[in-house]
12172_t:CDS:1 (Ambispora gerdemannii), 171 residues
Amino acid sequence: MNSKTLLERIKSIFNGVVGLSPDKITQTVGLNIGKIDLSRARLNFWDLGGQAELRSLWEKYYAECHAIVFVLDSTDKERIEECKQAFERIITSDMTEGIPILMLANKQDVPDSLKVEEIKEIFNKISLRLGARDSRVLAISALEGDGVREAIDWLFIRLKRNQPNRPPIFK
Ligand SMILES: Nc1nc2c(ncn2[C@@H]2O[C@H](COP(=O)(O)OP(=O)(O)OP(=O)(O)O)[C@@H](O)[C@H]2O)c(=O)[nH]1
Ligand SMILES: [Mg+2]
């Protein structure tokens, strides 16, 4: 959820181009794609819609992805339970085994948003099912860009570390 804004932010930080302005961003129904080049590697992003009806599509990407970024709307306390279930389904799928998972606590610019520590607490029990993989919860604001570079840096290190398990695709 709210991952389109994040993808535009990632592109503007790493590609040096101005992304879509927030008012041009509409809810994701299909797939938004984006790519960035980082020290001789190309990272391809597939931004999937977060709405409940679209979640069954996520698993079609599991076999080919090298990492998963789960973007959480930290202001939406009412739907946190729903997010827990969606997250649990991802991490318990055989096809995501061992894959690094980064959870982003987005919208940290909003004063009353859930903080990383609170989110960790909420996802505490589920995280026992993460198995042997790299995972992390990081605070970001896709809107303002805070924490986005650090998030991608974390991701890149873990992608490299997980190469023996899921090798990159050479093109
Ligand atoms: N305050 C604030 N608003 C944000 C942030 N990121 C996204 N939003 C807003 O949240 C709303 C949804 O964001 P989108 O990026 O359009 O979400 P989306 O990826 O299309 O949503 P799904 O497809 O349902 O996952 C928009 O109004 C964004 O401007 C943020 O970091 N801070
Ligand atoms: Mg989206």
